[in-house]
């Protein structure tokens, strides 16, 4: 893609329930939001904007960028914050905007560019995202790992915290990883298309504007997965499969040491 083809918005809010002030936490001597911003700037985007609802984050970010927008404290999601930025900026309906979460200091720049390029090429999709093959039976049964199944064109059919697709002949409702057996596990991993969703999205501006008019749907509430609102309303989500895993995000305090360890390995 050319530099003029997409924008990046980094939503960063202060009031995280599990780790308040998360964007300002120092990692290897820099606030986390700065790590995220610097990795986003490695992409071929023509704008990288930090969108926050807190003056403390804006003040810290002003030490390394002027591209900061103050947004409402009333948003329920980063997607809603993006939609406000789009309105403030007056970006064209066809503009592609990548949502890079502020708690992803190790995000891969090539992943950002891939979701933008994928959306540009898949003109019938309203947004695009990523997934990677699941390689362990523990991850298949982990409800914190979101699974996605695709159609023949690479569009999402459904996202779930449950095991999808369900291997009927190998699993029962009482199955667990210890009962399946190592040989069966190896066969299943080779034969089944289990994909882990990676929560990085590119949107068309028109999709963002439509999204904020949509009401949460029952599936979204049951699974606690915001992207199901998009599918429920008939908007296609294209999914690109990647082999390289994204860097560790920060949800709880214990994640900080893991990120610092990965940063050291990148610099060695």
Element layout with pairings:
Elements: E1 6-12, E2 26-27, E3 30-31, H1 32-40, E4 47-52, H2 55-61, E5 68-70, H3 78-89, E6 96-99, H4 109-121, E7 127-133, H5 137-140, E8 147-150, E9 156-160, H6 177-180, H7 182-191, E10 195-204, H8 205-211, H9 218-223, H10 227-232, E11 237-241, H11 254-267
Helix pairs in contact: 3-8
Largest sheet properties: 9 strands, mixed
Summarize the amount of helix as a percent range: 25-40%
**Silhouette:** globular
CATH homolog superfamily: Spore Coat Polysaccharide Biosynthesis Protein SpsA, Chain A
Q: Could you tell me the strand content as a percent range?
A: 15-25%
* Distance between the first and last residues' Cα: 31 Å
Structure description:
The structure is a single chain. Strand 8 (147-150) and strand 9 (156-160) form a beta hairpin. The strands form 2 sheets. Strands 1, 4, 5, 6, 7, 8, 9, 10 and 11 form a 9-stranded mixed β-sheet that branches. The chain is α/β, with parallel strands linked by helices. Helices cover 34% and strands 21% of the residues. The longest helix has 14 residues, at 254-267. Helix 3 packs across helix 8 (205-211). The protein has a single domain, classed as Spore Coat Polysaccharide Biosynthesis Protein SpsA, Chain A (Alpha-Beta Complex). The chain has 11 helices and 11 strands.
